[in-house]
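User: I'm writing a tutorial on reading structure tokens. Could you give me a worked example: one chain, its sequence, then its tokens, then a sentence or two explaining what the tokens reveal?
Assistant: Sure. Here is the example chain.
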Amino acid sequence: MALNANTLLVPDEPTAPEGAWLSPARGPYPAGAPLIRPTPDTNADSSTAYDEDEFVALWHQIYRIFLRLSYLKEEDVVFPPEDTGRHADIKQDRLRREFNMSDRAISLLERLPYPTKGAGGYDGVMFAPFGMVFNYLHADEYTLRTCRDPHYQNQLANGRDDPSPDYLYPDDVALLTPFESDGMCWILDTKTNAIRTLQDMVEYNSRAIPDDFIDERPDNQDHYRNWPGFDATFLLKRYIRDLWSLKFVPLDNGQYITDTSFSIESLLIARKLQTEYGWPDDFRADAWRLDADRVRHAAAEKSDQVTQGRGGMDKQSIERWKTHPEEMPELVVPDSDVH
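And here are its predicted structure tokens:
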């Protein structure tokens, strides 16, 4: 399916090439993503094609789902100007000179949408579970430095008290920053079209990798390039489909994205969206926009009642409700506009 950055289109289910090593169920997101193996010459492009146009279109689709679900408002997102398709305010010279970024990496940053609020930290926008989007358009000094060393907190034992401005390879782009030190970040390698999903980097031995995987940086066991990279196109397509199917539910105006496999609150919201608001095919977007905050509040209260203060976790109930949705508790929304 051809994608256009200006419209909301859901891509077909991604498929992995025959014979590829696939991310296991407990490995990096998403399960089934094909591993992109590093080449002996790190300066050589992989045979896997990196298509900037396709990447940009997929990234735009994620924002458009956020907008449709009222996770973000139109005024919360800055898309590149339609006439140029590029932000003029990206600090090209500084990114190139001080932060060791290649023209290819900077070109991508110019074409992505960005939230208007938050340059990073706790006031930023959660883009995926435990990962906040880097805001290169409104970046403050700290964000500019951490965008080139997003997991530096887990390197303190090695003597790095501050993010290094040139830690990432020139063609690599940090897309997400960890929410707190054990959160998740995505680092895109624009040469090999691979995304490294880094989380809990201190747990080096827990990585899900094939037995014959060769570390790219054997001189530094904790180096991010030693973590497996998986096909970026596959990952983004799967994430779009998981948002569209409400496996992941965005909550609280850019603050949380939760997995319905682990959260009663998000499972209740997902069912409400599907049964009363017609998501996705007959979605009543205006009604949802009016009621979204009330539905989220009611779902949070009902989750607390069901779990009795266990933080929204009740795996037994969640598994049961997935196969018997009629047994889910009724979610009563006070003053709802739904009729």
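What the tokens reveal: The two ends are 37 Å apart (CA to CA). Residues 264-339 form one domain.
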